[in-house]
Amino acid sequence: MADVHIIGGGLAGSEAAWQLAEAGVQVRLSEMRGVESTPAHHTDSLAELVCSNSFRSDDADNNAVGLLHAEMRALGSLIMREGDRHKVPAGSALAVDRDGFSAGVTEALTAHPNVTIVRERVDSLPEDGATIVATGPLTAASLAASIGATTGLDSLAFFDAIAPIVHRDSIDMDVAWFQSRWDKGDGHDYINCPLEKDQYLAFVAGLLDGEKTEFREWETNTPYFEGCMPIEVMASRGVETLRHGPMKPFGLRNPRTGKGAYAVVQLRQDNALGTLWNIVGFQTKLKHAEQVRLFRTIPGLEGAEFARLGGLHRNTFIRSPELLDAQLRLKARPHIRFAGQITGCEGYVESAAVGLLAGRFAAAELMGSELAPPPPTTALGALLSHITGGAEADSYQPMNVNFGLFPPLDGKAKKAERKLALTGRARQSLSEWLAAQDIPAPQASESQAIAAA
Length: 453
Ligand SMILES: Cc1cc2nc3c(=O)[nH]c(=O)nc-3n(C[C@H](O)[C@H](O)[C@H](O)COP(=O)(O)OP(=O)(O)OC[C@H]3O[C@@H](n4cnc5c(N)ncnc54)[C@H](O)[C@@H]3O)c2cc1C
Known about the structure:
Blueprint: E1 4-7, H1 11-22, E2 27-31, E3 54-57, H2 64-74, H3 78-85, E4 87-88, E5 93-96, H4 98-111, E6 115-119, E7 130-133, H5 141-151, E8 156-162, E9 165-167, E10 177-178, E11 190-195, H6 197-209, H7 231-235, E12 263-269, E13 276-279, H8 288-295, E14 306-308, E15 311-317, H9 320-323, E16 329-330, E17 333-338, H10 348-366, H11 379-390, H12 415-436, H13 446-452
Helix pairs in contact: 1-10, 2-10, 3-4, 3-13
The structure holds flavin-adenine dinucleotide.
């Protein structure tokens, strides 16, 4: 008999299961893939990455998500450990081999003596027993209905989109070149495809004219999430928008001409072998045949073979600021916690971070104590505060972790020093919180050692 039932084996559910299991708690992890899939997943592996393979910036001094990486590593995160183990080159970002990463998470949980993985779809919220719901943006409709009935509220919804992936050997490297923007990282982590002005204008026109996938009835009137907006929607905002977004040419120089291009399409390595590359920021709802035709007009991609084409899906999340307490418990039924993107955080790392907190909160409660929420001056605390109380419930929207969620600094700091001051304060706060909660201070864990290597 499990002590905690986790529903959903994605980024959040897997991390929550690991945290509980490592604390000595017996976990039942119910994952429906294996019986039934979602519109975006392709495998049965736990913690599958459905779109980009990037965990975004790994810079803990100047970037809020990089700071979140560091805090999760300090708390023994499985997602970060496997992310570090399966890292692929991506400049200052942490990008991973998606198959190796998910296989690593699946193996670790399968091998853990305190975890039982059950392939089943759960259709209603359990009446009793400690539960963590981590079913993500594509929660099965039956369970979503049960959540709606229990909370008395309709779920909110918006769209996320998938970018296409190209086989590396189909890219014409006599036209494209390796370089990271401003030569960051190893200086050559991205493949760049240059466009002249007339090619760019024709491409933008093609995006606007191209035939799009029709929305299904249940998807209409759903707004886009700004961070994952389809490229054709960006293009519709003005002819220059893409040149200042995913097609920006700045910080890149074509080694053949010695000059910059008018616009640049970038591809980022998608697997450890380096055989698959995704087109950065090119999530789209163009029809598949239209995508193939249009993307092959990009210089260097004339012969591109696509491992996966772009797509678009709906997301669901609850009004957490109204429904959840500071321990991620459903106020109306406190034996149930929510974790991951369904709480209204956004992104792989944030979802795993909320799973980590839900797992730790549940473990402490089972042991008869209470874990104080991390202070809002930390990245974990800032994210948690946004979800459980920092936002107006009526206008609540999914959010990536960012410095705007942190309490302002005391006194004035110059812009250039502000981020360093915020991350320095966060490190101090985390150390104090860990000490007060009797959690061992951050040590050079295996994943930190991998990250540092
Ligand atoms: C199309 C799309 C593209 C995205 N692109 C990105 C991106 O590029 N970068 C990024 O950072 N984030 C992206 N996201 C957001 C991303 O999904 C989340 O950040 C992350 O996967 C959420 O983690 P999670 O654990 O909350 O949910 P998930 O990882 O989706 O895990 C939820 C799990 O619950 C299972 N499940 C659902 N219902 C049930 C049920 N009733 N019973 C049992 N199991 C169930 C699902 O099969 C799934 O495995 C994207 C989301 C979508 C939908």
